[in-house]
Structure formats: structure tokens, C-alpha cells
Amino acid sequence: MTMRQSGGTLLAALLLSACAGGVIPPGTSGPAPPRPVQGGAATGNAVRPVPATPRPPMPVTPPASPAAVMGTAASAGVALGPAIADLIPSGERSRKALQAFRISCPSLMRRTDQSGLTRGSDWNNACAAASSWPETSASEFFSRYFEAVQVGDGTAFVTGYYEPEIAGSRTRQAGYDVPIYRRPPDLIDVNLGLFSDSLKGKTIRGKVQGSNFVPFDERAQIVSGSLAGRGLELAWAADPVEFFFLQVQGSGRLLLPNGDVMRIGYDGQNGRDYVGIGKLMKDRGLIQAGSMQDIMQYLRAHPAEGAAIMDENKSFVFFRELTGSGPLGAMGVPVTAEASVAADPKYVPLGAPVLLSLDRGEPNGIWIAQDTGGAIKGANRFDSFWGAGSRARGIAGGMSARGSALILLPVGSAARLARQ
């Protein structure tokens, strides 16, 4: 995946409405990005935030180049940041970030940087050093091989996502009767750009019915059994509410009756518009704060009404079984708990370290941009990955932090950018 179907954040995904017009919502056209969701065997109580004082961003500078491509880091303006040696904390966050950076290097050195900030060869020295650098001095690694730049006004907004854990079974049995479907073979993606230049970059999903191409079944139809009897059941969930939130996230873990874990990841979506039920419920006065916990509490307390509300989100996600060490991000490598963030690749090179200083202490420090998300757009917008389990769920479900962000680039990058 990118885990996040939403690529978004848990709270953002639940509140936001998706695009209209039958075009596949952003972030759902491929393996989903890690994005925000609920779903867990744990209670999911929110974690009390750790307050912190963020470092203020530097004064805004004009764009680096009048000819810069709009909607990129260059058009937002790039300025050399402060010396980072005293800004990078030592400890577990930096150690995990070094691990994540090391994993990203093969892809980082060969991929095209959409942000325009770096070239593949810029990363060679840092990646060579990372391969054998001792993790006990990870902060020194980042200080030696990187320099900071600020993109745009440097004002950061950070949310959180995690890998949900819910009760599930490979076979249908008592207590496990919510089907988790594989991608149906008759679900077809159509690249509209093949038919008209004006539609380049737009895709729709549907199915062939007779001689017509029609929308695929919506959530209410699928939940009512429109796909039953076709052998598409990958597994079975115990709780429809938990499974709903796992679909929002785009990947997760099934805790099987025998104690084993089955990991599942995004393998397509029915092409229907996503509807954020949190906003819908707030607008109707059904909940007040709109937190993940508020939404789940209402859905459980009012099962019939809750089922109808969930069906108002016509989007339905299909899954495949995953193997490996963790959910995959947009770089094609596993994302690392408390070290990986989703970012907009037009503003941050995927694989680059990011230094966050926020008004909430838990996310402060070094992260590696390894993922993307449909709701993660623009400069200095990040979604932090917290892993799996009750702690991860509690932090990610309530994460909403603001402050400043610096992008770490290989030494010498800022000087080259200034000459462009």
C-alpha cells in the first residue's frame, strides 16, 4: 500500500468529503497510502497530548525562481534553514529515522524527485554512509550529511495514522460474519486520458453490464450481499464498525482466533465517492467533537442508524493478504512506526528526512518522508505513522499538531538551488 487509501489522516478522512463527478478519489487509484483509520482490538482511547513549544518558522522568502513550476517546492519558495546540529535530538526517534532512511536509499537514489529539490545522485554520499553508520549516534549522521531548508512559510500541520488491529478469521465461523472481499475481477479501471487530452490524469472505475460501462456496486449493495457467492471472501471480520474504519485506513491486521496475525492491504476501491461520516454526523447534531472515539461510540450505541450512516459513504475498499515486515508506503518499502511520515512529493522529496518542531511533543524530531496520501497536500503538511496497537491508535486518533518544519537535503543542495 500506500496504506492510506485516504492517504489521509484518520480524523481528516472521517471528516472530509471526497471529490465529485465519478472520478476516483485522490489516493485511491493505486495501492492505498497508510491513512487514518480506526479499527482495533484495543479500546482506542485518545492519548493525553504532551504539550511543547514549537520553534517558529523563518520569515517568508519569495519563490526561488520566477519560472518555477506552480504547485512545487520551488514555486512556494525555498530558503536555507538554520544549522541543525543542535536541533536534532538524540535517542530513539533519530535511531528509527536512520533505519527508515537506510531502507529508502535504493529507491531514493534512482527515483525522480517531483519537488525539484534534489537529484538522485545527490543522495549517494549520505546513503553510502548510512549503510554502516552506528545507530547509537544517529543524530550525528543527520547533522553531518544534511542541511536544512524551509519550504514556503515553514508552518507545519501534522496528523497521525496507524495500522488498525481488528478481530478476524480466515474462515466464516460463529462471531465472524463480516466479509472482507478481494478485488472483484469485473472491477475495471478506465484511463479517461486515452479518450481525450482534456481528461488526462483522470480515471474512473466501474463494470461492464451488457454493452454499457456502469458504476460498480456501492457500499450498501455490497454490504447487503451483492458480491456473496462469488468466492471473493478473503477473510471475515467480527465487527462491522471496526472493519469500516479499517477500510478508511486502507490496511491493517486481523487478529485470528488461534492467536496468529493476518495482515491485509488495499487492493482497489469501487470507484464511488468517499463521504466523511464524521462531518455528516456533526452537521446533524449526532456528535459534538467529531473525534474518532465520538464517532465509534455513536455507531455502537445506535447500530441500525449507524449502519445506515456508514452506507452513506458509498466507497468500499477491497483487500489482499500482505506479507513482509510492515505496510508498504508510496516508495515501495515498509513504513516504520514513529519514523515515517506521509508528505506531498511535490514539496518534499520522498525519502528525505524531515525535522518537526510542534506544539505537541510526541512527534517532535526527525522523520522520513516515505508515503503519500490523498488528504496530504501542500507544503509542510504531514501525516505521522505510529504503528499498531492501542498506544498507536490512541495517539494517531487524536493527533493534530502545529508548528514548523524543515526539510533536510544533502549538503550542498541549497547552494545549487540558489544558483538555479
Question: How far apart are the termini?
Answer: 35 Å
Low-pLDDT regions: 1-8, 16-43
What is the CATH top level name? Mainly Beta
Beta content comes to: 15-25%
Summed up, the domain count is 1
Largest sheet report: 6 strands, mixed, barrel
Overall shape: it is globular
* Category by helix and strand content: alpha+beta
- The secondary-structure element order is HHEHHHEEEEEEEHEHEEHHHEEEEEHEH
Strand neighbour order, sheet with most strands = 3-16-13-15-14-17
- CATH superfamily annotation: RlpA-like domain
Overall pLDDT score: 86
Helix percent reads 10-25%
Question: What does the model show?
Answer:
Helix 3 (92-110) packs across helix 5 (138-145) and helix 9 (292-301) packs across helix 10 (303-311). Helices cover 24% and strands 24% of the residues. It has one domain: RlpA-like domain (Barwin-like endoglucanases). The protein has helices at 10-15, 73-76, 92-110, 124-130, 138-145, 219-223, 240-249, 277-283, 292-301, 303-311, 390-398, 413-419; strands at residues 78-80, 146-151, 155-163, 165-169, 178-181, 188-191, 203-209, 212-214, 233-237, 251-255, 261-269, 317-322, 340-342, 353-358, 365-371, 381-388, 400-410. A 6-stranded mixed β-barrel has the order 3-16-13-15-14-17. A 6-stranded mixed β-sheet has the order 5-9-4-10-11-12. A 3-stranded antiparallel β-sheet has the order 6-7-8, with no helix packed on it. Residues 1-8 and 16-43 have low confidence and may be disordered. The protein is an alpha+beta fold. The longest helix has 19 residues, at 92-110.
